[in-house]
Each structure stands twice: as structure tokens, then as C-alpha cells.
């Protein structure tokens, strides 16, 4: 259900913070995109046909039928279930970072981690540096915490490290929020040299880096990159999630922070929701104990790869000459930059009339937004639908 923008209540005005926070326009667009006649390139939800329903059902059954049933239904520790943390740490450690279960804090989705970081590290009015464009709901979380998101100019390889340093110094920023791998919305990935340069700039500016990493596990081709946190472990908070590799409904995210921040983040989490659902944590742990996550991810990649290829082929064939596309090696998104003179917002109603939905790029910018950008996702449609969706989008661009 779409959430209406907050309106002042007679006699009970909303907080300034909430009144200033925009309801995501994408949620409303997604409602329209769900109509059966529309091919949706708009969403970012993982493909429902990849959910392991029998496996998760068995995991919940095992928890509730066994000796942990009472524990699963009880309050639990703020940091999270130790066995789950051990398993997630082993997964995170594959990406060049030393991490043990005790280093992790389980959060209620990675989205919660953004709010916890804001409340533990930043004061009202503080600046958080962001890529331009960036993840829309991170901008919302920062708005709700009354922070000022300041855009760092970015190119095809991520934010410009010199600009990051200069803007951090100018604005007195303490935190930079980055999505280094298969970024939402662009699909782009920072190469090794850029990660090293960003880590160096952060050290010079005294910045905490927040590495939001929901997509790196969804690699469709090529070699895994080390986490940005591997380049600057003492100043990077890395956030991962089971949402894109197992199920977003579980709401299980996990955070590895530098030692000094672990206590403060746990206090913020305690104040926010005491702990993440015990039963969801124990079921996730049972699933991970009885399945090979890497095999499951390989099956996800086999599912998404032909979809990415079909959408890329269709976009190359049907979008106007001079269009620039990202060609991501993973994740769920492709970013489109239409040639001069095209306006994605003006194209959207024509596209919906023709039966295809996408998200205009302007929603993802903290700074000034170019008119001709848009985000498309290959996550939920079939390859045939994706080719047809690209053809409809091309027709809508033509007028
Ligand atoms: C960049 C980014 N961060 C965080 C999230 C939120 O994920 P979670 O389900 O773990 O809260 C998403 C979901 O789309 C995302 O794209």
C-alpha cells in the first residue's frame, strides 16, 4: 500500500523532521506498475520465484519443533543470535575483511542500520556525504534524522576521491554513505583503484565510511571485489543483508563496525527495537546450517543473468541513438542516460500508457538531477517481457 505524504494534523502537528521527509514517490509508482498489463522495470524487489519456500518453512518448523522453540519466542540479546552471527561473519569474511561473529550486530534489515548510524554518530543538521545518484531510502533515513545529504560528484567508477576530500573538509562532514558494488540505482561498481583512493581520502578527511552492500553477493559474472571495508577496516561500517540472497521478508541485516562504534550502535539498536525478531534469526540460522548459501547464490545468478542480458539487448536495440547504459556484472539495476533533449518524467506517462514502468532518475539525486536519466531493473520480469518492455520504452521515448 502506498503511504501518503505526511500532512499536518489539527491540534497535533507533526514533527518538523517527519514533515520534511518525503514519502517515496517510487512506492506509488510501484503500485501502478503492479497492474497486470504493465511490464515493470521499476521495482527493486528480488524475484519471488527464487524464494526457497520449502527450505524456509522447514527451517521455521525445525526451530519451533525443537529445543529452541521457547528461546525463539522469547526476547533476546540486542547484538543478535551468536550462531547466526558466526555464520554471517564467515560469509562476510570471504570478501577480504577479517570478521568474527562477535564483531557483528544483527539489524532489522540493512535499512535499520542506516537509522542506527545516523542516531549513533550524527547530530541534527550534520552533513552526510552521498554519491549522486544514490539509494532513495537512504536519503529518506537521513532526512528523518534531520541530516543534510551533500552530493559528491561521481563518474562511471563512483565518487571522485578528490571531490570527496574537498567537500568533506568544506562541510565538516563526519560520514560518507557509499554503495561500492552494483550500486542502487546505477549498477556501477568501484574498481580496486577507486576503493583505495576513497579509503585514502577518508583517512585524510577523518571520515567514517558507510559501505552499504546488499548486492555484491549477486554477482552474475567476473571476479569478486574486496569490500571497501577491507581497504579501511578501522573507519568503515559495512552493512550486508539477507534480503537479496534469501528473503527480504526475514528482515535480517548485519553490520560490522570498527571496534569503537560497536557499543554505541548496540545502544542505538536497543533504543530502536530491543532486538531483531528472534524467531526470524533462528530460522535464518537453521536455513544457513542446512543449505550452502554459495550454491543458492549460484542458482540466483543463473536466474538473473539471462534477464540482465535480455534487458540490455532490448535497451541497446530500442533506445534512441546516443543513449548511455551501465552494463553491470551483478545486482539488479541498469542505469540509462538518454541523449540531450529527453526528459524521463515526461516519458513516464507515455511509457505507462504503452504498458511499461521505470523509475525516473531524478528521485535518486541529493544534488541537481539531470532530466534524461532513469533506472530499470531486470529482477522480476521474464526475459521475453524484458525485451518487450525495452521495446515499449523505446517507443515511449520516441513520443
Ligand atoms: C542500497 C540499498 N540499501 C539498503 C536496502 C534495504 O535492504 P534491507 O531489506 O536489508 O533493509 C536496499 C533495498 O533495496 C538497497 O537497495
Protein architecture, described:
With 399 residues, this protein is of the alpha/beta class. It folds into 2 domains: 16-52 and 295-398, Aspartate Aminotransferase, domain 1 (Alpha-Beta Complex), CATH 3.90.1150.10; 53-290, 3-Layer(aba) Sandwich (Aspartate Aminotransferase, domain 2). It has 14 helices and 15 strands. It has helices spanning 16-20, 25-33, 53-65, 69-73, 82-92, 109-121, 136-144, 161-171, 192-205, 259-273, 278-290, 293-318, 344-354, 383-398, and strands at 39-40, 104-108, 127-131, 148-152, 154-155, 158-159, 175-178, 208-212, 236-241, 252-256, 324-325, 333-337, 356-357, 359-360, 373-377. The strands form 4 sheets. The chain has a 7-stranded mixed sheet, sandwiched between helices. It has a 4-stranded antiparallel sheet with strand order 11-12-15-14. Strand 3, helix 7 (136-144) and strand 4 (148-152) form a beta-alpha-beta unit. The longest helix has 26 residues, at 293-318. It is globular. The protein starts with 15 loop residues before the first helix and ends with a helix. The model has no long low-confidence stretch (mean pLDDT 94). Bound molecules: pyridoxal-5'-phosphate. The site of pyridoxal-5'-phosphate has 13 residues, from helix 6. Keywords: Aminotransferase, Pyridoxal phosphate, Transferase. Belongs to the class-I pyridoxal-phosphate-dependent aminotransferase family. Residues 72-393 form the Aminotransferase class I/classII large domain. Its cofactor is pyridoxal 5'-phosphate.
Amino acid at each position: 500500500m502506498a503511504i501518503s505524504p505526511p500532512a499536518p494534523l489539527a491540534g497535533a502537528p507533526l514533527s518538523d523532521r517527519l514533515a520534511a521527509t518525503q514519502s517515496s514517490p517510487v512506492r506509488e509508482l510501484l503500485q501502478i506498475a503492479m497492474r497486470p498489463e504493465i511490464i515493470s522495470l521499476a521495482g527493486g524487489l528480488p524475484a519471488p520465484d527464487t524464494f526457497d519456500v520449502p527450505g524456509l518453512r522447514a527451517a521455521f518448523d525445525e526451530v519451533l519443533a525443537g529445543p529452541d522453540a521457547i528461546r525463539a519466542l522469547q526476547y533476546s540479546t540486542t547484538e543478535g543470535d551468536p550462531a547466526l552471527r558466526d555464520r554471517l561473519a564467515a560469509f562476510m569474511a570471504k570478501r577480504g575483511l577479517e570478521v568474527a561473529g562477535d564483531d557483528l550486530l544483527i539489524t532489522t534489515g540493512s535499512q535499520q542500520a542506516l537509522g542506527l548510524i545516523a542516531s549513533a554518530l550524527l547530530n541534527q543538521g550534520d552533513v552526510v556525504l552521498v554519491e549522486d545518484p544514490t539509494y532513495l531510502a537512504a536519503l529518506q533515513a537521513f532526512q528523518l534524522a534531520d541530516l543534510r545529504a551533500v552530493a559528491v560528484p561521481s563518474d562511471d567508477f563512483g565518487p571522485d576521491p578528490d571531490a570527496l576530500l574537498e567537500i568533506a573538509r568544506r562541510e565538516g562532514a563526519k560520514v560518507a554513505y557509499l554503495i561500492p558494488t552494483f550500486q542502487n540505482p546505477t549498477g556501477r561498481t568501484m574498481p580496486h583503484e577507486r576503493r583505495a583512493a576513497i579509503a585514502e581520502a577518508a583517512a585524510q578527511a577523518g571520515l567514517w565510511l558507510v559501505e552499504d552492500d546488499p548486492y555484491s553477493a549477486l554477482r552474475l559474472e567476473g571476479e569478486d571485489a574486496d569490500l571497501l571495508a577491507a581497504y579501511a577496516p578501522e573507519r568503515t561500517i559495512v552493512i550486508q543483508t539477507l534480503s537479496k540472497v534469501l528473503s527480504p521478508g526475514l528482515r535480517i541485516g548485519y553490520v560490522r563496525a570498527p571496534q569503537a562504534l560497536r557499543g554505541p550502535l548496540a545502544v542505538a539498536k536497543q533504543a530502536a527495537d530491543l532486538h531483531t525478531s528472534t524467531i526470524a534469526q533462528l530460522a535464518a540460522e537453521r536455513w544457513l546450517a542446512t543449505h550452502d548459501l554459495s550454491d543458492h547464490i549460484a542458482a540466483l545468478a543463473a536466474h538473473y543473468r539471462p534477464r540482465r542480458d535480455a534487458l540490455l539487448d532490448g535497451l541497446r536495440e530500442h533506445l534512441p541513438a546516443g543513449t548511455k547504459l551501465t552494463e553491470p556484472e551483478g545486482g539488479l539495476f541498469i542505469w540509462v542516460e538518454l541523449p540531450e533533449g529527453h526528459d524521463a518524467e515526461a516519458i513516464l506517462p507515455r511509457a505507462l500508457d504503452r504498458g511499461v514502468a521505470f523509475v525516473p532518475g531524478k528521485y535518486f539525486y541529493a544534488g541537481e538531477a539531470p532530466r534524461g536519466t532513469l533506472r530499470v531493473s531486470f529482477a522480476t520480469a521474464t526475459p521475453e517481457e524484458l525485451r518487450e518492455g525495452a521495446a515499449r520504452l523505446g517507443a515511449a521515448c520516441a513520443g
